[in-house]
Specification:
Length: 179
């Protein structure tokens, strides 16, 4: 029941973060489908623009050029109405986001998701440890005002539906309060 807002309305920016596999992409695309917000996957953006500054030999993956990612997104972020999805969050300007959601997944569930994604060995173990030690939650809490950082469980489809409904409601309330 999304009411299409007027073109000149202020809209918030939302950060979806958390360990790979917790469900950021699925949730982000659903929010975008139910609103007029733009979904941006930072991993895909970096790939398309080759926003890299080297190669990590240990992990066998390119290293994100964080400054170029920030430059690339700056204009879009100032318009509002953007959902950003990335598995790290400490290099974005704090002022970009009105709310930060850290998705959380139980270990056994995440194990299965990452394994079916083809992760194995050190990459699989490191990502599971990242979730167990709540690395991204701590990163979010130290990078943004603590009262805008929220953890969301993301284990079963019902969690996804609840999270989606909550976020849509939050957006609608924000827009009422800020327009
Ligand atoms: P991320 O973008 O955080 O890496 P994703 O959206 O690609 O994660 O999700 C990884 C997989 O898990 C994908 O197959 C969808 C599934 N999934 C995500 N959230 C879920 C949930 N709450 N319940 C069940 N499956 C979920």
């Amino acid at each position: 029941t999304w009411i299409v807002p007027q073109a000149n309305m202020r809209r918030p920016n939302i950060l979806l973060t958390g360990t790979p596999g917790v469900g950021k992409t699925t949730l982000g695309k659903e929010i975008a489908a139910r609103t007029d917000f733009t979904y941006i996957n930072v991993g895909d953006l970096a790939k398309e623009g080759e926003l890299y500054e080297g190669f990590d030999e240990e992990y066998g993956c390119p290293i994100l050029d964080e400054d170029r990612v920030v430059d690339e997104l700056e204009e879009k972020m100032s318009d509002g109405g953007v959902i950003v999805d990335y598995h790290s969050c400490d290099f974005f300007p704090e002022r970009w986001f009105n709310i930060v959601f850290v998705l959380r997944t139980e270990n056994s569930v995440l194990y299965n998701r990452l394994e079916s994604r083809g992760y194995k060995g050190k990459k699989l173990q490191d990502n599971l440890q990242c979730e167990i030690f709540q690395i991204i939650y701590e990163e979010a809490m130290s990078s943004y005002k603590e009262d805008i950082v929220h953890q969301l469980p993301s284990n079963i489809p019902e969690d996804m539906e609840n999270n989606l409904d909550q976020i849509i409601q939050w957006i609608e309330q924000w827009m009422k309060d800020n327009n």
